[in-house]
Amino acid sequence: MLECGPAIKVSIHLNRDTGAMHGFLVDEIIAFLRRTGIEGATMLQAHAGFGAHGRLHTEGAGDVAGLHLPVVIYFIEEQRKAEAILDELLTIVTDGLVEAHPTTILKNVASSEKVIS
Fold this sequence. Notes:
Layout: E1 5-15, E2 19-20, E3 23-24, H1 25-35, E4 42-45, E5 48-49, E6 57-58, H2 64-67, E7 70-77, H3 79-92, E8 97-105
Antiparallel strand pairs: 1-7, 1-8, 2-3, 4-7, 5-6
């Protein structure tokens, strides 16, 4: 469990349908983060967005544009642990943008009690 205090937040911006060696790049990134022991990661998918090419992609487009939606994968980790995987992560990300920001963990509580079974 992450301790309160200084940490780093890494965000990866890419398209949901970007291909990789074995399937989609988003799945490869999530698998890599799990395999390397990152505490947790989240992927958020947008309803609409555009990138460097300026073409708007929307969820209800009904064609390939509807599958080409932007996603953000982010994780928060101790600086030492994040820095240890960054070179390999940057090699895996063949399309998109990766950013990192210093952050502070103020509270981290994990309960074993489930709200919904």
